[in-house]
Write a structure and sequence with these properties.
The complex is a heterodimer of chains A (about 425) and B (about 190). By secondary structure, chain A is an alpha+beta fold. Chain A contains 9 helices and 19 strands. Chain B contains 5 helices and 7 strands. Classes of the chains: A alpha+beta (about 425), B alpha+beta (about 190). At the A-B interface, strand 12, helix 5, helix 7 and helix 8 of A face strand 1, strand 2, helix 5 and strand 7 of B.
Chain lengths: ~425, ~190
């Protein structure tokens, strides 16, 4: 189904009175809206996360990914330039790239052996001149007029972004100065992969987009720290937002009184965490940045997250796999400079997040609970007024839903929902 | 346990590389009584988890044992990140306490189905074992799925009293995808 405008929905959609602090449940369960998102958001004027630059480190490297539901392949060509193309043969539409990642000189469709250069340009086709003078392509077949559909690509701070909108300004201007600064803070390092995992969560992708921006639920749903009486000295923090409101940062800081030289110079500060843990090495950490910030969770519209919490550095990517199914990827990172002990601490802290995350495993099911809880209530709305109804960033407190309101502000704008 | 397992590198020897083959390169275990005890030990472990007797889980390990669940893709690429990683039985006890008192999830149970175990002698006098598993997960409302499949790569030590303990249990998952969440150990 192709939907040209919001008015083309089989049921017209109007945002309810009260603006972005009221979110209709229909948004999570309407297949027409889901189809329109594919077009308006993922194939529209946004920068989509494609993969890590590490995934296409060397010339000839390729990596499969998706933009919304559209299959995409990212490559690095012989001269080192990164490209992204729809993973769809220009001949009959079959997937050209079948392997998740690898290294190749050309990409060849297995169906009829149409082969493409790493920039997506068609290079050769089988039996172009037929066999023994019979068959073959028509006289006017022009190989230069066929290629894999390209995306515009930009690499920013180790992340490869792509867009279907040729007119998109730079990733940096899409992020805005504040968001760009924090992406650099987390990722502008000689990165090294530590490993990935993924989770299938049974909910619409936007419920995870909300969840990632939801600082209100953190200590209420996730009770690991309080249960183990882990005395966190980094509870001061706030919410920062981009000017267009759809990206956000949630940060926590060490309490000011701890910012003395003694602490800053301490290599490992697990001692800061008094706890009832039987295995306190879980929280072994070192001070990696000198700005006093210990926890950053950042969202970038539409479906990217980055966390840098203690020493856990992770890129989270939540790919829609249908109306109410989402694959949540966790790409854990270290740096080339890490000592074995530092790597051990990053891996250990991986226990706190992900599918089995001691702190946050509840996020695997909580969004599904909303998906299920709202069944049959498509005409009802959620109530998102913690911290007010406005869009002012909250530098002193995280007991707010302002970043969720920010998400819906951007969503409403790009979807054209009046 | 040999030095590689106890060193600062948490990294197991990868099964796909030459070094990994070493893991199962020791001599055959011909003591049939010992083989029978290992088979019972493997089943007792699985049954404890299936029966939700989770406090028993850390007791299958030595105090300084390692337990890691890792996806095959990371394991074969020699990447260290696990889905769950415990250094020592204390961390395992914390896991159990967390899932009983802190973590929120829908009630569910596992059933482990194990293959026979391939056993070899380890250089340190213990045993190495490789065992395949399939785990079904049944949710409270009856939905049942194949939740996990893969292999256990174990280092087992025979204790002075003759009982068995894991010094390392590496759970290698075939799929990168975890459905919903993983809260009970495998």
């Amino acid at each position: 189904m192709t939907l040209a405008t919001a008015e083309d929905l089989s049921e017209p959609f109007v945002w309810p009175e009260g603006g972005i602090s009221k979110v209709p449940y229909r948004l999570f369960s309407d297949p027409d809206i889901y189809a329109l998102e594919q077009q308006r958001i993922f194939r529209g004027p946004v920068w989509n996360f494609l993969c890590l630059e590490l995934d296409v480190k060397n010339p000839g490297d390729f990596k499969m990914t998706s933009v919304g539901e559209t299959p995409v392949v990212v490559t690095r060509d012989k001269v080192g330039k990164v490209h992204a193309m729809v993973n769809r043969c220009a001949h009959k539409g079959a997937l050209v790239c079948l392997k998740d990642k690898g290294n190749a000189a050309v990409l060849t469709c297995v169906y009829h052996s149409w082969s493409y250069r790493l920039d997506g340009q068609l290079q050769g086709i089988a039996f172009r001149n037929g066999i023994k003078g019979k068959g073959g392509m028509p006289e006017d077949f022009d190989i230069t007029r066929h290629r894999l559909q390209p995306l515009k690509v930009e690499v920013f701070s180790g992340l490869v972004f792509g867009t279907f909108d040729e007119g998109m300004p730079s990733v940096e201007s899409y992020l805005g100065p504040l968001m760009a600064k924090f992406v650099r803070r987390s990722l502008d390092k000689p990165l090294r992969p530590l490993g990935l995992q993924s989770q299938i969560i049974h909910n619409n992708w936007k419920l995870y987009a909300e969840n990632l921006r939801d600082s209100y639920h953190a200590t209420l749903l996730h009770t690991f720290y309080t249960t183990f009486k882990i005395n966190r000295l980094d509870m001061d923090g706030g919410i920062l937002m981009s000017d267009d409101k759809w990206h956000h940062i949630s940060f926590a800081k060490r309490a000011t009184l701890q910012e003395d030289a003694e602490y800053r110079n301490a290599k490992v500060h697990s001692a800061q965490y008094e706890s009832k843990l039987d295995g306190p090495q879980l929280l072994d950490a070192w001070d990696e940045e000198d700005d006093g910030i210990t926890h950053v969770i950042q969202s970038i519209f539409p479906n990217l997250g980055i966390h840098f919490t203690l020493n856990s550095i992770c890129v989270r990517f939540f790919a829609p796999r249908g109306l109410n199914e989402t694959e949540l990827f966790w790409f854990y990172l270290g740096t080339e400079d890490d000592t074995p002990e530092q790597e051990r601490m990053r891996v250990m802290q991986g226990n706190l997040t992900g599918a089995a995350g001691l702190v946050s495993l509840e996020d695997g099911c909580i969004n599904e609970f909303v998906q299920r809880g709202t069944r049959g209530s498509e005409d009802k709305i959620s109530f998102v007024e913690m911290g007010g109804r406005d869009l002012e960033q909250s530098e002193q407190s995280r007991a707010t839903e302002v970043a969720i309101r920010g998400f819906w502000t951007g969503y409403r704008r790009i979807m054209g929902f009046a | 346990m040999d030095g590689a397992a106890m060193g600062t590198q948490p990294q197991p020897q990868p099964q796909s590389e030459g070094a990994a083959d070493d893991f199962m390169q020791g001599g055959a275990v011909e003591d049939l009584a010992l083989r029978a005890r290992v088979a019972d030990f493997m089943l007792d472990y699985a049954h404890a988890i299936d029966d939700l007797d989770l406090h028993a889980w850390p007791r299958f390990f030595t105090e300084d044992a390692r337990y890691k669940i890792i996806i095959r893709q990371n394991f074969e690429a020699n990447l260290p990140m696990g889905v769950m990683y415990c250094e020592g039985a204390g961390m395992m006890r914390d896991r159990v306490l967390a899932l009983e008192t802190a973590n929120i999830y829908e009630p569910h149970t596992y059933s482990h189905v194990l293959s026979g175990s391939r056993l070899t002698q380890a250089p340190d006098g213990g045993l190495h074992a490789r065992t395949n598993f399939v785990v079904t997960r049944t949710m409270q409302e009856g939905r049942m799925d194949t939740f996990a499949a893969g292999k256990y790569l174990d280092r087992i030590a025979v204790q002075p009293d003759g009982s068995l303990r894991f010094t390392e249990r590496l759970v290698v998952l075939d799929s990168r995808r975890i459905d919903i969440l993983l809260v009970f150990p495998l």
